[in-house]
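Researcher: Please generate the 3D structure of the following complex. Treat every line as part of one assembly.
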Amino acid sequence: MVATRTKRVIRLEPTDVFIYIIGALIVFVVVVGSIATLSQGKYSINAWVDLFVFGVTLGSIYSLIALGYTMVYGILRMINFAHSEVFMSGPFTAYFLAEAFSRSGFLNQSPVIALILIFALSMGTSVLVAVLIERIAYRPLRNAPRLVPLITAIGASFFVQYMFRGLYGTNIKVYPEIEALKGQITLGAFRVSYIQILVIVAAAAMMLGLHLFVQKTRTGKAMRAVAEDRSTAALMGINVDNIIVTTFILGGALAGAAGVLYALVFTQVHFFMGFIPGIKAFTAAVLGGIGNIPGAMLGGLFLGVIESLGPMLFLDGLGITAPYQLKDAIAFSLLVLVLIFRPTGILGERIREKKA
Amino acid sequence: MLELRDVHSYYGHIHALKGISLSVEKGEIVTLIGANGAGKTTTLRTISGLLHPRHGSIWLDGERLDGLPPDIIVRKGVGQSPEGRQIFPRLTVMENLEMGAYTRNDKEGIRRDLEHVFGLFPRLAERRNQPGGTLSGGEQQMLAIGRALMCRPRVLLLDEPSMGLAPLLVETIFNIIRELNREGTTILLVEQNAAKALAVAHRGYVIETGHIVLSDNAANLRQNDLVRKAYLGET
Amino acid sequence: MKGNQSKRVLSLAALMALIAAGCAMPVTPAAPAQPAAPAATEAPAAPEFTPPTDPIGVVQIGPNDPIHIAYMLVTSGSDGTLGIDSRRGIEIAIEDVGGKLLGHDIKLSGEDSGCNAEGGQAAAAKLAADSTIVAVIGSSCSSEMRAGGPTLSKAGFLIVSPSNTAPDLTDPAKRFPGYFRTAHNDKVQGAVAAQFVAEQLKLKKAATIHDGSPYAEGLANAFAENFEKLGGTITTKEAVGPNDTDFKPVLTKIAATEPEIIFYPIFVAAGSLITKQVKEVPGLGDKVVLMAADGTFSPDFIKAAGEAVIGMYQSSPDFSAFTGGYADFLAKHEKKYGEKPLSAFHAHAYDAFNMVAAAIEKVAVKGPDGTLYIGRQALRDAFAATKDYKGLTGTLTCDPNGDCADPKIAVYQQTEENLKKLEVPTTPIWKP
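Model: Done. Output below.
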């Protein structure tokens, strides 16, 4: 009796207490800050809506990149740190096509065809880079200890980055703008630019497509099977290597598309451009529950919106000046908060560790 | 039909199989009995290509299997219900069965086999849209066997189908094994429950620390002193 | 199979190591000073020569060795043009003296300091390890100097920056020994910019954005201080990250404070994005006036910001006030590099090198065997004593805090013409 009773008592370790205090502190700042900001009424509803739309736009791009991290993690249980370079290589290569289209006037004569070709080249390049990285840097190490492919991932990332730097230089390349995408829609007080609509719609369509692919097709189901149990999947007659390559292809295609969307929004590419979005997308994947596909989508949107709204909503009311300096701090604090209360991320389930 | 000739397998540096030779003829149930760690599961993993033997050869109807990757071996007709069931917990029952038929393209045949499996295991039909992880242990075992049948195996490898199941369920499972065999399926059955295994099998092998120490027909093995003492718990 | 795999892995690793090494390859250090033995044996009759002594060390340069000057500039990345521009100024200056000083070749080596604190620290550590270096011309960005300066100072180098403009680098309380600059102090630029906005444009409400770098923060603060003195209001002071790309949230926040002008003295990468994104933010759009500073005064910026640059203002060194030699310099630059200067600090770098050379000539002592002795403290003192030096950027005199510039700041406006040609404006629209 006594023994069972003592077992029920939850023992609080000092570190747990510390972590919960931090969690409570973050919640406190968020709640008090939001109330203070909103009660001051300094910013109009329009400003908030605009911020929200910016956040969703950026978040959609994060989501697309995050899917690549999460799918590879789901299958290989490894973080593909070179994914940010997969993201960079596509739009960087497609820049040359876009620039040529722009110079010949084709870009503004038939923007739809031009965009389709730019997307195709970008996605194709990203897929190629992703597949090559898998083949050269990861597959030979498939059965090595887990830290080993992590190191080659970082090496591959540098390799691709500096290869692009060596080939095309360190300058910022300015993406041509498309006349047809310059306007905006005004719905009463709300304004959404065409580019934002393009980003959000394209991202939503691709995510829906991915969802259907993974849920409904034979290959999609095989991907899930391999993610759950690689050796049993092999016993079903699934060629695990092919499925892994398929995963890299899907992740690469999404990253390549995300790259063009990013380049259209920010109108520039650069050999180092993958780093920050890569880190953010990785964070989004962890936030949503790494290995979980809807989680990556949700995590990306969440992160985008928090980065956009958070500093002003949480900190402005507290009288903190220049809060946007702290947007990354806020984003990562919320990551900490989520992980305190849900260690596996928003939608994450405890992923079964593989048998040795 | 299925034949192993002097097979040696290693886990890293551990010499797990030290020259296994056995054969399964068409239409037979052959059982491989032995204690924990004797090499039963290793034998099955070696046949299905998850482990590659360092010496020896494996043959299926005169074709060499050793060295081929697991997915090709499945395509050649070796189906396996692995130890511990290993169903895909987040895939539905239906999807698990579809994965079993991954190597096949004949829609009509798959549909017929699906009905056949649901006929054998009506419980699975009821739960076809439930995630595999929510099934009970017995249902998971049914699913694992059903899934292995979906690839229309020429030889079905069953790894510890009775493990962890209540006695009543064990009975059901063994009835189904008998039923499958009557329908013409060739079965290699690995079991710790030697009594049950020898009751359904035609022939049997006893494996100890990587060696086959005995082989005979099932009736003789049941009478064998060593088997009676070590595996049937008789004194 | 296994061996094959490990071979592949090995070759990959080797390839990467090679690349890494290629990136990090330091400039080969000069040969050690010549042994002094021949002097003793060959010239026993010569009058007694005592090499100079110096409290922080003497650089000995053998008769056939070069005088080693190093640069520490940002030469890659999105801000690379800033440092490459300065390096070209140094290279032209070296050519102009025929590549020789006091009969010794001039050797120029350098490190890329990345326009950030980490890069500055790393570059400074590498330079400090090379005791043949007499003087360092650099850095480009104030953040690099803040981090790397103490290391360079301890190594005994003379340090002359052609483009650090953050006020606190020459604040007597924070300045490190041996540090000088030929670039203007941003106190001056901030004041000029504020005066322009308040008196010329007659605007009353301004918002500022800096990127956390000492340069930008110092300049934004100097602007705000002077602007308020002139009767203006600062509606909000914002800060962003230098690697950020999405500035719409912060611009939306600024829009709510309704400024008439935004002053954002930051660098090319973030600056161009802000310039573009302002146009897309409701409430700012075409209404708000944009003004930046010399950190974005480059063709790169114009290219990256596109149409949005038209009409914006930038404060920058006043090239029209540069001396007659500047036209000559531009001609040489165009001939040597096939293009116009990339940024604003080539002339300052040119002057910096010549002032260093003049100081070396003043203090260097030649031994009987041709060995050159340069006292490090003596060199710093000689540089500090520079007075009325006629350079490209004006008449330079070093004040006790290390500010040597003859600050001539003017305001420029970008036009369609500039965008078409991708060239920065050459004629200021306003001077104090």
